[in-house]
Design goal:
It contains 14 helices and 12 strands. The strands form 2 sheets. Strands 1, 2, 3, 7, 8, 9, 10, 11 and 12 form a 9-stranded antiparallel beta sheet that branches. Strands 4-6-5 form a 3-stranded antiparallel beta sheet. β1 and β2 form a beta hairpin. By secondary structure, the chain is of the alpha+beta class. The protein has a single domain, classed as Beta-lactamase (3-Layer(aba) Sandwich).
């Protein structure tokens, strides 16, 4: 645990109850670490923060133009969506344009996230399918890429498949690593996922956010980051943190959460990004720590600070709504 530092602490009745450890890396487009907490180079699986970079082979080959994908469709490829009707409609539209059915999706099926977010009651079993999976937009993009290139669809998630090899190549280039340096694992949606130092994930997001200014992936980064900032409701969903962050950023912030405590966050105007990992994966702690990083970096104006105040989750309430504790930031970024 020496590589992790306390990021968020919770208190009940004035007594420390929980400590959420983690690490933060703030980097620029060249990979220079400008600030950190804990080990800036901690090796972490990227989980769903990787989605925008996984879309690079398809976007770089002109896939969206070939299939008539809208900006909303491009946003869906980067999404961990809530399975709301607007999300399902977008995924179905993408599959229609690629000439495929939802049965070709290999992401699996789970209860839509909109129930957890308090948007609507959980649907009855049998009334949702793979399109409701939070990763279905990414998978629809994968399948469209296979159709575009004439690659087999049946095994599109196999690490040796041409699509996954192309993704590994482009992800490595985007974050400044060799493909063999990416540690492979399998994500919750059955797609290959890669672990990398937090500093390299931050670098990749700093480049993504700069869009056309990037000398290697400029056009693709512009399409992806523009879609994400234009449609944060599709990238996440109603009452979700990434939606709140990108709306508060007013077009400047490119934001994506990942499972098990990962968060990537870039500022287009600053050419910088940070990657954060909370070791125990606590979602509330991840969001609270993210707001604390923004505050310490000076990225918040008064309006944004007020807008994001609820996401700090400073007050801990019991079932009756009585405040019984508090949640506090426990770290200070060190400038490199």
């Amino acid at each position: 645990m020496t590589s992790f530092v306390p990021l968020i602490e919770t208190f009940r009745g004035g007594t420390l109850e929980c400590t959420h450890f983690g690490a933060v890396a703030v980097a620029d487009t060249n990979g220079r670490v400008v600030a950190h907490a804990g080990d800036a180079h901690w090796l972490s699986f990227t989980r769903s923060t990787l989605k925008a970079l996984q879309a690079l082979p398809f976007v770089g080959a002109g896939g969206p133009q070939l299939f008539g994908f809208t900006r909303e469709n491009v946003a869906m490829m980067c999404a961990s969506h809530s399975g709301e009707p607007m999300h399902v409609a977008q995924v179905q539209g993408m599959l229609d344009k690629a000439g495929l059915t939802y049965q070709t999706l290999q992401c699996g099926c789970h209860v839509p996230y909109y129930a957890e977010a308090g948007v609507a009651p959980a649907p009855a079993p049998g009334t949702y399918d793979e399109r409701h999976n939070n990763c279905s937009g990414k998978h629809a993009g994968f399948l469209a890429s296979c159709v575009q290139q004439g690659w087999p669809v049946a095994n599109y998630l196999a690490p040796g498949h041409p699509l996954q090899q192309a993704i590994r190549r482009d992800v490595a280039r985007a974050v400044g690593l060799a493909p063999e340096d990416l540690k492979i694992g399998v994500d919750g949606c059955s797609a290959p996922n890669y672990a990398m130092p937090l500093s390299h994930l931050a670098r990749g997001y700093a480049r993504l956010a700069t869009g056309l200014a990037d000398p290697e992936f400029g056009e693709s980064f512009a399409q992806l980051s523009d879609a994400m900032t234009a449609h944060p409701d599709l990238v996440s969903g109603t009452n979700r943190a990434d939606q709140a962050f990108m709306r508060a950023g007013r077009g400047d912030w490119v934001v994506k959460a990942g499972a098990d405590g990962v968060q990537a966050f870039a500022s287009r105007s600053r050419g910088q990004a940070f990657a954060l990992k909370v070791s125990d994966g606590n979602k509330v702690a991840v969001i609270a720590a993210t707001v604390a990083v923004l505050d310490q970096l000076g990225w918040l104006d008064a309006r944004q600070r007020d807008e994001l105040r609820p996401w700090r989750s400073e007050a801990i309430a019991n079932i009756r709504g009585t405040q019984v504790g508090e949640r506090k930031s426990a770290f200070q970024l060190k400038v490199s």
